[in-house]
Amino acid sequence: MADSHRISVHRALGGGAAADILLWKKWSGGVVLLVASTILWFLFEIAGYNLLSFVCNVLLLLVVILFFWAKSASLLNRPLPPLPDLEFPEESILKVADGMRVWVNRTLSVAREISVGGNLKLFLQVALGLWVISYVGSFFNFLTLVYIGVVLSLSLPMLYDKYQDQIDDKLIVAHKFFQAQYKTLDDNILRKIPLPVKKEKKTQ
After folding, report:
1. Membrane-spanning regions, if any (predicted)?
2. For residue 150, which of 29, 26, 67 has the smallest C-alpha distance?
3. Packing angle of the helix pair 120-137, 90-115 (nearest 10 deg)
4. Cα dihedral sign for 113, 114, 115, 116?
């Protein structure tokens, strides 16, 4: 019976190739992503390699290899480098732009709800979230945070998919606890804070 209430993590992640990688259904993709992110983190964070120098050196090496490959191919009657069409399809650009538009509109909606609507609950949620991000960011730099995000994205979805029932039970208990704490805070403090009352314009 418990399986009927389980959430399809694969479907929640989009159900595509990215979901297969995050849930380790495609081991090769997960291993490549983890190894590549670890190497990049080590180069830039531990070895102190400069990002701009690294990108330029990689591109220079690639250009040199392709140039000499093409020259040797023409001299030795060998096939040219198998390069795909180097262009972004219009559909992909429009899809990314549409996704960014949704996030921007959502951010603007939250900002309007806080500044104009005076939503105190939403204000506290945003302020607490930004404070937590700022506090965690004080211990790590941006690159380390990105690497931690990659590692967590390759571990948390898989663990939740495997132990969903046990995790859901703990989350329900935690949700009830925080709800009770917020209700106490709301009754004792928040409701006592005077909020500006919107005055409606009288129409003659």
Report:
1. 27-44, 51-70, 128-154
2. 29
3. 120
4. positive
The reported pLDDT for the residue numbered 194 is: 63
Report how far residue 193's alpha carbon sits from residue 161's, in angstroms, rounded to the nearest whole number. Answer: 43
Report the predicted TM-score, pTM, of the whole model to 2 decimal places. Answer: 0.62
Query: Residues in the chain, how many?
Result: 204
Alpha-carbon distances, residue 188 vs 102, 177, 184, 195 (angstroms) = 37, 17, 6, 15
Structure tokens given for 165: 């029932």
**Interatomic CA distance for residues 127 and 178, integer angstroms:** 17
- For residue 149, the Cα-to-chain-centroid distance in whole angstroms is 8
pLDDT digit string (tens) for 130-139? 898 888 888 8
